[in-house]
Amino acid sequence: MAAIQVGDLVSLYRRKVPGLGLVVKKTHNLADHAGFDEEIFKYAPDPRTAGRTPPNWWYRIEEAIRDAADPDAAQSFVNYNHYGAKKTKLKKSFIRVRWVRKPSDYHATTTFSEEQWIPSDWAKPI
Length: 126
Hints:
This protein is an alpha+beta fold. It has helices spanning 30-34, 47-50, 55-67, 71-81; strands at residues 9-11, 20-27, 94-101, 115-119, 124-125.
């Protein structure tokens, strides 16, 4: 698959409605771009053994998002990387897509936002 560049038309090929969007920005490490400390994920409690995620861990993440240089990018980084206990391989390469035709979003017919950060390996150039 060809590498995605700024200005390419892309789609989310795994979705029921793949959509069509224009790549506006590309970054190889979204956490650095956003000014978000990704080390916070290394201290995630294991939900299988802890029973519940301690609230102070989530408070630290929310504070880090709020204090980031680009809170939208930091929130996207957290959304795509917070599942699972102590992930060893985080998604870092992201693209910012401006949707011409919005893709479907799980149970919703279309995504909510006109522009969003998505992992670059989820998109396919057209």
